[in-house]
Amino acid sequence: FSKISGSWRDAVCKYCDIIGQGKSYIRKSIADTNSFYDSSLKKIDSDYHEALQNLKEEQSKQIETVKISFTEKRNKVIEHYGLLLASKMDFNHALKSYRSSLGAEADSWVKYRPSTNFPSEIMIGDVLQEFQFSDVCRLSNPDILWDEYESIKFPFVMNFFAPLNLYIKYSEENHDLVFSGINAILLRIISKMPINCFHITYIDPVARGSNLKRLKVLSELNGCHICGKPAANRTDIALRLKMLENLVDELSLTLATVGTVYDYNKTYNDKMDYHILVLNDFPNGLEGPALDSLEVIINNAHKCGISIIITQKDDEKIEHGISDLIEK
């Protein structure tokens, strides 16, 4: 029994040693594994943070490079823009001086005095050119008075060494605007020219003279030869145009060796008169002989100093032959 007991104790002890060695091995394996894991993870974390830091530094350099490039380009644009605005300001000042020399600001008839000289040019209105500036421009340059740059008024000038020719198509909606503009042009010419040195032939077949408005006073003054009674019916229209045609024939003989009315008036002291033909609502009121007379007038207008203003309603149909006449 004692022998059996001793063997059993040896076996148990041996078993316990084996178990102890196994546990030690497992603990060492786990410790080694944990150590490897910790060191590997720390290395990975270290590499990650290093790479991230390098990336951030590289990005910062790139961002700084982009900022510098953008700033340089932006400053160049702003500088160029400022030069453009400055040149526009100079241009505006030059235009204002030019408009002032043309009498653009002196439109009051209270101070009207008939001119004694023939002007070389007459300002008959303005052409407005508008500009739009982005909010970025406005916010980037808050010190600039942007309202001063939002438009430019170009003077619309009639050179008095050549006739004025206007062909205006209008709609019913802008009828009043168009005819007010025409009357304003005629009044500007009257205010700048020597009195009774030109004559207006006013043909108004549809409105029967009501388009004259302020010019109506001139047509009713006895002894006033600037603007006679408007021609409205077909007979009167044909008669007025025939009178102008006869004038063309007379002037053509006189000017045969001179050139044009403008050449004549520059050469001689006894000045020839200028003429303005206003033909409203073309081709209403015109037929046969009247159209023949109009063709003669148009063909010789430049030579004879006849300015022509023609209006036509945009829905008015014109025959082919008559449209060819207008194209002249």
Distance between the termini: 147 Å
Note the run of SSEs as H and E: HEHEEHEHHHEHHEH
- Given helix and strand content, the structural type is alpha/beta
Uncertain residue segments: none
Q: What is the number of helices?
A: 9
Write down the overall geometry: rod-shaped
The main sheet orders its strands as 3-6-5-4
Taking the sheet with the most strands, its summary is: 4 strands, parallel
The average pLDDT value, as a whole number, equals 76
Q: Count of DSSP E strands? A: 6
Please tell me how large the radius of gyration is. Answer: 47 Å
Structure description:
With 328 residues, the chain is an alpha/beta fold. It contains nine helices and six strands. The chain has a four-stranded parallel sheet with strand order 3-6-5-4. It is rod-shaped, with a radius of gyration of 47 Å.
Provide a brief overview of the structure.
With 328 residues, this protein is α/β, with parallel strands linked by helices. The chain is built from nine helices and six strands, in the order αβαββαβαααβααβα.
